[in-house]
Amino acid sequence: MDQTVALTRKDFQSDQEVRWCPGCGDYSILAAVQFLLPELGVDPDETVFISGIGCAARFPYYMNTYGMHSIHGRAPAIATGVAVARPDLDVWVVSGDGDALSIGGNHLIHALRRNVNLTILLFNNQIYGLTKGQYSPTSEVGKVTKSTPFGSIDQPFNPVSLALGAEATFVARTHDMDRKHMMEMFKRANEHRGASLVEVYQNCNVFNDGAFTPITGKDNRDNMLINLVHGEPIIFGADGQLCVVLNEFGEASVATTSEVDAGAILVHDESRPDPSVAFSLSRMSSGPSSPTPMGVFRSVSRPDYGSQVDQQILDAQSKGAADVNALLRNAATWTVEAS
Amino acid sequence: MSDQVSTLPVEQLDSVVIRFAGDSGDGMQLTGDRFASASAMFGNDLATLPNFPAEIRAPQGTLPGVSAFQIQISDWDISTPGDAPDVLVAMNPAALKSNLGDVVSGGAVLINTDTFTDRNLEKAGYAASPLTDGTLDGFRTFKIPMTQLTKDATAPLGVKPRDAERSKNFFALGVVSWMYSRPVEPTEEWVKAKFAGKELVIDANLAAFRAGYAFGETAELFDHVYEVRPASLPPGQYRNVTGNTALALGLLAASYRAKLPLLLATYPITPASDILHELSKDKRFGVRTVQAEDEIAAAGIALGAAFGGHLGVTTTSGPGVALKSETISLALSLELPMVIVDVQRGGPSTGLPTKTEQSDLFLALYGRHGEAPLPVVAAYSATQCFDAAIEACRIALKYRTPVILLSDGYLANGSEPWLIPDVEKLPDISVSFATEPNGTDDDGEPVFLPFLRDPETLARPWAVPGTKGLAHRVGGLEKADKTGNVSYDPLNHELMTELRAAKVAGIGSDIAPVSVDGPAEAKTLAIGWGSTWGAVKEACRRMNLAGRPIAHAHLTHLSPFADNLGEVLARYDTVIVPELNLGQLAHVLRGEFLVDAKSVTKVQGLPFTAGELVQRFTEIMEEA
Known about the structure:
By secondary structure, chain A is α/β, with parallel strands linked by helices. Chain A contains eleven helices and twelve strands. Chain B folds into four domains: 10-228, 3-Layer(aba) Sandwich (Pyruvate-ferredoxin Oxidoreductase, domain 3), CATH 3.40.920; 239-425, 3-Layer(aba) Sandwich (Rossmann fold); 432-510, no CATH class; 516-623, Rossmann fold (3-Layer(aba) Sandwich), CATH 3.40.50.
């Protein structure tokens, strides 16, 4: 691509017809990414989208970049291979709650703890869509679905808590009703060197419609979304009437702003080396029914995996020439003379 | 010490088979390995068979805890570690009990008598001491208090008796080294390098080794020593190498000759882990090694690296192949190069993790969902693992396909002298990445068609991310011919299925034709694959010497077969297929060539001996 000509959203759209259900939240996430990438000035030829299986996983087909639609759950592993082999590339992973947290849970946590340089978007719609409506590892207890006619008895994962527990260096949450916020979170995640995970609350209008409406609906947002801003006291509500405080055990809870000392309101610090406070924030809501933090929970710097792999190679190469013939002979050898 | 010349008469042997056996904590693998190295340095040909339990430390003194190492050294070009030991070194009663039955009649048995306590005898299941009850009648028995002699030798150094006991394997090595006139320098130098910085350990091991050597000379137990002269091998520079090391070096050489960086992603599994250990040391060659979170991730990481333009490899054993199956099918569908190494072991399930078997052939050929043929290459000797690794990489890169390379526990851990090749003379296996659009769209604009195939190989272009103008998507959904776009068209699916199969089938003319060794008048063919090569070759040699003509062919490619295989099989009245499974290759040959193949099988976790093959081949030939 000629970088002297500014790219537009269209440059990142493939020629393939987008085949999500009409009204699916995935459309707005795709649009957010396609609007963002030209803004970031990235080269589509140096960008890779890797996905697993599920509705979200069709994403790479619609991006005019390099891409791979792979295997259920395995996208973080395959993307790790791309990122370790090719640290020069900008590698994104697009996944869903079933793909990332159920069948692929192991790969997700290990990509995070290794800090592989990946931007991971986790579309969380709390349902299995592509298989037509079974409960997922983020579905709430009691959820009635085709596979849980008497209600789900599984404790759901909280993806942000899980990522923090997996030693993630960047964890954020956003939702599909706010393109501006999505773009901001995706930008932050992509600029982070290392593994970044963004949970996106995403509406499945066919199998789990309105799951997030209690918090993301236009009328509910002000009092139900807690906007995390680095360095700012965490205050929310239409009139700033609500805030977040920590108790003596470090647990976060909602308080009425007028009833606490200004100094008692938690000032958000996404760069804390210790993830405990971020974890407390992640525990404030266990489902979309109470005030829910949105934004960057944690952003800390730690060497990324691929860079360290490369560094070990450079260190080894600085100690001597790489001679394959010498390596083959790097043992006790003897010579048989021609007789 | 090496210039000490024995005063005893020297008997020349053309070969000898020695087995070191002891408790799994006794260091028998190390002892055998040192004897092998010294023999290799001396110029003998050799082959080894390590045989150890899955437990790192099985209960001490018990039969399941016995670890053994067999080696054949010779003055001619041998291919097996020998059928039966001429010499057994037994470090405890359990080792004697579980190995004595294999020793040739009249063979030598060296016994560490210090361990023959009532308790150890009971653990080994001996009601009475075999040292005195006639068990050893018919053997030349040498009863040596090795533990005490080691303690005596190391006490002046200030070594505590408990620590001294750990050096008793070096005492045993010393005795056997003296018996067979082995050079001592390689072992002494190795001890000094291995334990550098631990002076007391070096001194103790050297003292024990020298004491053992001197014991042989002075104890008057032996009436003569033996000598196995250097073998007349092709000229050149040699080293000793195990199959796993050779395979790792082969992957690295393939990367060098392909001009592509190597990425090995692996999850630890016996008996394949040493390949990871070797390559993780070789970072200066640009090798990236990733110890993945699981077998599935290892395959995924290798595939991701291949997508990124690297030589992506994953190494494992049977259970790991099962886990990688879905990813292998994806690689096959994406038509990306990838090498999967299966170092086979006894199965199913955890099976016999430290023992050898060839029972993953069906898994390699068929262990995938959908119509999913892929090339399968099999290594046939420890040193040939090097060449097989390069061949697997060559096919994978040229045809953009996953390739399964089969090795096994016997090849992996066994060692033999290796005529070290010059990498610059190995074949160039480099491939070109796509750099330009290769088609035009409806408007006549240049486009990249990721599934437009090379008309000769049917391989698709490999365009790696970062290549300007070639951005494209691949995926597990069926792809339209040429464009690679998602397609549910019934006829396209059939076309793509047939194209993938035809691509693999076409490799049959791009591999070495099957060659046959043996007399022209032979009417019987023994056809094997993989690690049985040495035993089958030796069995056929003996039968031909005995006037029973038999030919030998050995398959290096199990999928596709070389194009001439059907013609070769048709030349013989009787086709015998020896393999360490219940007849998997025989089943395939019967199905593919309508040949009445006779199976000779074994699933004991051990390789065939040449002797048992001679017997079973003879039985079949007499029935025919």
